[in-house]
Amino acid sequence: MRDMTRERIVILTGEHGEFLDAASVSPVGQERLAEIDAQLPMMLVHHRLLRRSVIGIYTGLVFLALSVIGIAAAFLTSSDALGDVALGLVLAGTVAIIGGLALAVKTLAISANAITYAVNRTGSLGKR
Length: 128
Fold this sequence. Notes:
The protein has three helices and no strands. By secondary structure, the protein is mainly alpha-helical.
């Protein structure tokens, strides 16, 4: 994403460092700007979902690790209450991991859409 935004700035920069309007850019530059403008929003959505996915999976792992501690504490103290808390942590951890994995699958679909867009757009360049 950084490279694409940098590329956008380079395309829109004139010889002396001034910013150009889109009409002053070459047709190839205009085509690349159109691709960047279409792909960056898709990539931002992908990035946000991927971040949420990783956070969900890590949160689930923390809950599962805490549940192991809770199970040990419940066993050592013979406490039903601690056992119930540990069970709740296992369930919460499992749900968080499944949610994170579901978001990861969604990010794969978005990534596939972005790649398909780029391939189709580039494939149609000489055909207009």
